[in-house]
Amino acid sequence: MSHYIHGSAPEEQQRLSLLNALMNARCVEKIQIPTGSRILDVGSGLGQFTHMLSQLSGTTGYCLGIERDQRQLDYAQRFKSATVEFRAGDAMNLPLTEAEAGTFDIVHARFLLEHLSDPFQAIQQMKKALRPGGKIILADDDHQAMILFPIPDGFENLWAAYMDVYIQAGNDPFIGRKLPKMLVDAGFNSVRNDTAFFGDFAGTKTFDDFSLNLIEVIGTARELMFENELISENAYQAAMDSLKKWTQSNQATIWYQLCFAYGTNP
Known about the structure:
Layout: H1 10-28, E1 38-42, H2 48-57, E2 62-67, H3 70-76, E3 84-88, E4 104-110, H4 119-129, E5 130-141, E6 147-149, H5 155-168, H6 179-185, E7 189-197, E8 200-201, H7 207-219, H8 222-227, H9 233-246, E9 253-255, E10 257-264
Parallel strand pairs: 1-2, 1-4, 2-3, 4-5
Antiparallel strand pairs: 5-10, 6-9, 7-10, 8-9
């Protein structure tokens, strides 16, 4: 059984909102949305990117966001419109009517599969939602790709403990590298992969926000790290102090990438 390790407290929603502001434009560059598209956004979260997808499809398009967390769903309702709808549901069993199944031009999921115990089942559900010739777009993490320079003292052990939290929770911190094969195994055609850069360098306008996101996302797993004895409290605190100090270095650099995979429904 998988477990979403980040929670949905107001502080976490603020972090996610900031992450959307940092990432959405970079992700849109990797996505082609024809005008008038019917889009299904699975794991739509706060709805910010769902709203952006709907803008790309235009006034003749339609975008349905599926989200299982009620707090995030409540936040997303502010983006509801004639062309955008949000619905409570689970990626493992999409809440689509018989009339809706097999009608979507595009199915999109971002930062979703890493949190599921059976991501392949979710992909199969997405495939059923697509019309013949419809496109699937998956974007997810491979946490091993995280590189900081210079390396803060204790960070490598801290990040390893963070990744181990995913594994202990029944999730997959390395799902990004597996996306193309999963699409092939699910029967999609024309599968290809790509990445979106998710990094920054000291002195840019966004570096402080990227650094804050990194610190806060690690913080969401703090108690689980301790409960599973993945790192001691002293080692955790020392590494976090070192990471915060690192953010003040004029050499500080974050290297990271978001993995994309695309496929076409036969």
